[in-house]
Amino acid sequence: MRICLFTPNFYPAVGGAEKAALTIAQRLHDRGHEVTVLGGKQRARDRKTGVPDFDFRFVQYTRPPKQNVFAEGLAWPLIKAHKKYHFDVVLAFYAYPTGYAANIARKMTGVPVVISPRGGDLYPNFHGLKKLRVKGIVKKGYGEADRIVAMSNWLIERIEEICGENHPTIDQVYNGIDLKEHDQQLAMCDDAAVEGVEAGKYVLMLARLAEVKRQETMIDAAVKLKGWLKERGIKIVMAGDGANRARLEKLVDEKKVRSVVMFTGTVGGLEKYWLLKNARLLVSTSREEGMPNTLIEAIATGLPVLASDIGPHVEMVDGKGFGELFKLDDIDELAKRMKGMIDGDMAGYQAKAKQEREVYSVARMIDGYEKALEAVLKQKD
């Protein structure tokens, strides 16, 4: 197949959606498909990083200054690319704005559109929903696609809420990682210890420092558990960076929990795997997620998970035996469950996590996307 992966952002952004786009494009290319990633042009501050030589084709387009007002204009870069590369099918990340624009382009090109929601425009608190036209664009984008590939049941339910009965066939395909590569990185990471972090003596939070991730909930829990954490020599390690870092650091100082909470900044490569391998458990306090890669990496590592009870977390964790849930923003329950897990049967949690990991293999993920793309081409015929 000649596939266009149409996405608002690609390189050098490093969020979950961008990582998924890179993985899907590379793996479909490896299976013999002709893949073109059509991604929004880098912002000026990122252009100095340059663009690597990918195995697949990467074409950049200029995003309009107000995508909510000029969403239709995004159809033109896709039409232009199609004239040159003759796509069989478009795989668009999100309905707003790319999926919506791909549906418009289809009227001129006849190329069917599969949309993959990544969370973002389906979150109830998505900031873009306050802008003119965005609600309508999201509804029309998903409703008029030829097919949808969703990462979780929660995303499927959100599409059904927004579109009612008027939505195309939806395939559920979990995110996946390369388990073999993951294990190789874990085996190689022993000399990549993060400065100031003691193996086996920390609870890990691995996420952007952003309001949506709700790290302040963990800081408040640290206040309640400060004496207990110090007694056991356990720290809360917040690995990652972001716009909220200065505010969170200030909060840690104001609450006087600097002795049990530390920030590492951005981590990647072997350092990230060292943190996953040597943590007591991973905690996610997020308010919104699509299908969090961090939890998938924890499961693949055999690392127990404690997560807020938002839809995707419930779907991944509830009843699986490798972790527990707490009510979103409930500081008392977070503190209670974290303490209980650390003092409990960690070996049992670890064994259950390893049993679940095959669900999140990259091969299974690519099988799902490939089948969905092939199915929409059969519909066209």
What would you say this structure looks like, in words?
- With 381 residues, the protein is of the alpha/beta class.
- It folds into 2 domains: 2-176 and 362-380, Glycogen Phosphorylase B (Rossmann fold), CATH 3.40.50.2000; 179-360, Glycogen Phosphorylase B (Rossmann fold, 3-Layer(aba) Sandwich).
- It is 44% helix and 16% strand.
- The protein is built from 14 helices and 13 strands.
- The strands form 2 sheets. Strands 3-2-1-4-5-6-7 form a 7-stranded parallel β-sheet, sandwiched between helices. Strands 10-9-8-11-12-13 form a 6-stranded parallel β-sheet, sandwiched between helices.
- Helix 6 (179-188) crosses helix 9, helix 7 (215-232) packs parallel to helix 12 and helix 10 packs across helix 13 (346-356).
- It starts with a strand and ends with a helix.
- The relative contact order is 0.12.
- The model has no long low-confidence stretch (mean pLDDT 94).
Q: What are the salient characteristics of this protein?
A:
Rossmann fold; alpha/beta; seven-stranded parallel beta sheet; six-stranded parallel beta sheet; 14 helices; 381 residues; single chain
Short note summarizing the structure:
The chain is α/β, with parallel strands linked by helices and 381 residues long. It is built from 14 helices and 13 strands.
Q: What shape does the CA trace take?
A: globular
Order of helices and strands: EHEEHEHEHEHEHEHEHEHEHEHEHHH
Identify the CATH homologous superfamily of the largest domain.
Glycogen Phosphorylase B
What's the tally of helices? Answer: 14
